[in-house]
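Feature request, filed as a ticket because there's no other form

It would be nice if the structure record came with a short human-readable summary line next to the tokens. Right now we just get the raw output. Example of a typical job, pasted below so the devs can see what we mean:
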Amino acid sequence: MDNAKPLPSYLVQRYYGWKATTYSENQAWYRRLASDGQHPRAMVISCCDSRVHVTSIFGADQGEFFIHRNIANLVPAFSPDGQQHGTSAAVEYAVQSLKVAHLIVLGHSNCGGVQGCIDMCQGKAPQLDEKSSFVGRWMDILRPKYEIVADIEDREEQVRQLEKHAVMTSLENLMTFPWIAEKVKDGKLTLHGLWTDIGEGGLECYSADKEIFLPV
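Raw output as currently delivered:
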């Protein structure tokens, strides 16, 4: 593979710093993680957005969360068609093999994927409508929910509401996986929908009873 290059020097220096401090001070813990395997209590499905720092938000240690990230924290519906499904594979591994007790979908403010979905639905992003657009076809998962927010005139509020519908869409689609539905029914697995405001540090949790997101 001729195109693979050495790490940038600033990353190398950060690695040396981590190895000399954090790792050096916790060698026993890291070796235990390596030998005992992982036993996370929860899976978190969050956005790829670099501003969303799941472990920081919850003060989580290594080995505590099984984390999967994708554009706009979306989960597709159950579709055992023999094709390659990265998100579904991660969910299957977390639920069936790791047997996590909690499955958390975390949405966030100022989500570029959601904004792109709105632009696509409004005919302002023809490139996303191209069959060759991986982002556009991924955002098709959320596209049906655009009609719910289509009449909201304030762009910021429109995006915010569709961001929350992205979380709810993922929760709905998770329940189409038969082994998830079964574990939820048996009380072996709980689903949670969260939305975080990046700028304000706020966190909201979806209330199924009130059908709205409420501050944590």
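Something like this underneath would help us a lot:
The chain has a mean pLDDT of 97.
The first strand starts at residue 42 and ends at 47.
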